[in-house]
Amino acid sequence: MIRLLIDADTGVDDSIALLYALNHADVEIVGITTVTGNTDSEQAGVNTLKILDLADAPDIPVVIGERQPLEEKWHGPVTFIHGENGIGNVQLPDSARSFRRQDVSDFMMEMAERYAGELVLVTLGPLTNVARTLRRYPDFGKKIRRVVSMGGTLNMRGNVSPVAEANFAGDPRACDIVFQSGMDILTVGLDVTIKTRLTVGHVELLKRVRKESCRKAVEYMDQALTYYRKGSRDQNYSLDDCPLHDPLAMVAALHPELFQIQRRKARIECGGTYCKGMVVTDTREKPFQAEYVSFAVDVDRERAVAYLLAAFWE
Ligand code: BDR
Ligand code: CA
Where's the Inosine/uridine-preferring nucleoside hydrolase domain (predicted)? Predict the structure, then answer.
């Protein structure tokens, strides 16, 4: 059994990562915090409650997190990929669940203390909430077993600039604070997420073989992904498939053995005109002052997709 604390800017691929974890037999989700990224943290919270309903999930606390990055200004919702509402403009019923009204850092620390040494923290959006928690509670990092973070790129081009990926570029300072915290961090970036694709064929298969308890979730995924693929096409992908960003990070949290990992001393570029949000690693004999971070550089993508799909039919 793996205990997860999940931090998400609940857009289309975040929601699929959540549905996957919610349907995974060996997972307990102790809480979900939301952050501004694909959409604002409040809307991400609304989406999260609806996703919990879709999965008939138990009463998992959902806490609304930071509304703005630490130093940047948020550029507004990424509607061309995630729709006006963050979930591909799919209209899901309003949820009767309510948020846990608690400061996000207090909640994160409370969970970290309650499950000290056990929690895997999975981040699917900018790292604002985690950085604020580390600033407020310097011991937070010591209580978390591992962080698995969707973001960054080492060898691939970026997706919001030539060199930067959306989550890390969304709050570079927060990312650098988390990188320098000394926590055990595995990043799952564009190096592996771009080449791991979910095809129309996969979704059609899921529609045929899904278990009955996943019917609503799979219908939702079909609709949300139709929108998402159109947005991805604008980024030069095909209409027949889309990259798996956040769902692959969730796979990495649960099945790290599928990934090839490199450890590097790493920092995040927090300034500059062209490179803000870029991951900078140093392999020189006398490297710069930095902590080691683990990077997923390759993945067994067939098995990763198979594990993802299996949660909905086994
Ligand atoms: C990341 O940015 C967001 O659009 C996705 O949800 C994912 O977390 C990919 O760069
Ligand atoms: Ca995300």
Answer: 4-304
Q: Average pLDDT in the 125-136 region?
A: 98
Measured from the Cβ of residue 21, the count of other Cβ atoms closer than 10 Å reads 24
Per-residue pLDDT band at 194 (split at 50, 70, 90)? very high
Report d(CA 220, CA 129) in Å as an integer: 28
| Model confidence pTM above 0.95 | yes
| CATH number, domain with residue 228 | 3.90.245.10
Strand 146-150, strand 185-188: pairing: parallel
- Closest protein CA for atom 4 of ligand 1: 38
Q: How far apart (Å, rounded) are the C-alpha atoms in residues 59 and 94? A: 16
Query: Look-up: residue for tokens 């529609």?
Result: 207
Calculate the average pLDDT of the chain: 96
**Ligand 2 center from residue 17 Cα (angstroms):** 9
Whether the CB of 150 sits within 6 Å of ligand 1: yes
Going from the Cα of 122 to the center of ligand 2, the distance in angstroms, rounded, reads 11
Task: Give kind and range of the element (H or E) at residue 264.
Answer: strand 259-268
* Domain that residue 95 falls in: 2-310
Asked if 63 contacts 33 with a C-beta cutoff of 8 angstroms, the reply is: yes
Distance 181 CA to ligand 1 centre (A): 23
Is the Cβ atom of 232 under 6 angstroms away from ligand 1? no
Residue nearest to atom 10 of ligand 1 (CA): 166
Amino acid, res. 302: E
**8 A C-beta contact, residue 8 and residue 38:** no
Per the structure, the count of domains in the chain is 1
pLDDT value of residue 15: 98
Of all atoms in ligand 1, which is nearest to the CA of residue 249? 8
Q: What is the pLDDT, as a whole number, of residue 67?
A: 98
